[in-house]
Design goal:
Layout lengths: L1 E7 H8 L2 E3 L5 E5 L9 E5 L5 H5 L5 E4 L10 E4 L3 H12 L14 E2 L4 E2 L4 E2 L4 E2 L4 E2 L4 E2 L4 E2 L4 E2 L4 E4 L4 E4 L2 E4 L5 E4 L4 E2 L4 E3 L5 E4 L4 E2 L4 E2 L4 E2 L4 E2 L4 E2 L4 E2 L4 E2 L4 E2 L4 E2 L4 E2 L4 E2 L8 E3 L4 E2 H12 L1 H11 L1
Length: about 300
């Protein structure tokens, strides 16, 4: 998330009432999670295990819960609760804005685009030309939709990331300030849900086709010309490269990559990154032929036990 204008380190420290290490006029351009940070961004870290990763990342401002040595060319924001203060910044720069109509006055709708009754289009949404939005679709604020996109009834674009911190009193939610971006020539089936990024974008690239009842988690990027069948669940921060085929009821864990033209068979469970140009099956998902050989071997176990018992 980039700020509307450059802020100083001192200004940011004032917003969250924190101490800082660095020049008061040190420039701050935005805030992001560690996997999408760039120069000028704030990143937060609240566990010693990840201090070095945050301090050595591309971020130039580190919101941290310990006064550590500040790397050259960077600045620190010292907080007793970085998670809480990261939320404060999201609320400050991306506050919730209610809308008083089904289609917000700040939304931009392209030529020949049809929006059926009951759909809700939020603030600052952009929809391209020749799109068809069926009934009761919910498009949250700041979503970007390209040209020639079809979205079927009941789909929700831009719901919050499923991201919580466990505290003694319960779960504390990380507030989402990112977007959903749908590129040209994408089809989305009925009752799909696509979460917005925490600070960045959840993206579906051009030409991808998605069936009914598919969930896509926050900050996931789906490549061009992918096919995703019904009831697939994709966790946050997944990268799915171009022309991947995912059949029904596949579950994919967070922060992994599925290589170009991979094929994942129905009801597989993907727990690690998968190479390109291969077919996969099973839980945990593995090479299709290897997995079927394993299944064939397992089926032989009862016969092997019977033979052993007869030889005793």
């Amino acid at each position: 998330m980039k700020f509307p204008q450059t802020h100083t380190l001192q200004q940011i420290a004032t917003i969250i009432s924190s101490e800082f290490v660095g020049e008061p006029d040190f420039p701050v351009l935005g805030m992001n999670e560690i996997h999408v940070v760039s120069s000028g961004d704030i990143v937060f870290v609240d566990h010693p295990k990840y201090y070095d990763k945050a301090l050595q990342s591309a971020a130039t401002v580190i919101l941290i819960n310990k006064n550590v040595d500040c790397p050259e060319g960077k600045a620190l924001l010292i907080s007793d609760d970085p998670f809480r203060d990261f939320n404060k910044l999201t609320q400050y720069f991306k506050p919730f804005e209610k809308t008083n109509s089904l289609i917000s006055e700040t939304a931009t709708i392209g030529q020949n685009t049809i929006i059926q009754p009951g759909s809700c289009v939020g603030n600052n949404v952009s929809i391209g030309d020749n799109c068809l939005i069926h009934a009761n679709v919910s498009i949250y604020d700041n979503t970007v939709i390209g040209n020639n996109v079809t979205i079927h009834a009941g789909t929700v674009l831009g719901s919050d990331a499923f991201y919580y911190k466990k505290r003694p009193e319960g779960f504390d939610k990380l507030i989402s300030g990112g977007r959903v971006v749908i590129k040209d020539n994408v089809d989305l089936g009925a009752s799909c849900t696509i979460d917005k990024g925490v600070t960045g974008d959840t993206i579906v690239q051009e030409g991808t086709k998605i069936d009914n009842q598919v969930h896509i988690g926050h900050d996931t990027v789906i490549g061009e010309k992918c096919l995703i069948a019904s009831q697939v669940g994709i966790a946050g921060c997944v990268v799915i490269e171009d022309e991947v085929t995912i059949w029904g009821q596949v579950g994919i864990t967070s922060a992994i990559t599925i290589g170009t033209k991979a094929i994942i068979s129905a009801q597989s469970g993907v727990s690690k990154s998968l190479d390109a140009n291969k077919s996969y099956f099973g839980t945990p998902a593995d090479d299709f032929r290897k997995k079927y050989k394993e299944i064939a071997s397992i089926r032989q176990i009862p016969d092997l036990i019977d033979k052993l018992n007869k030889n005793e």
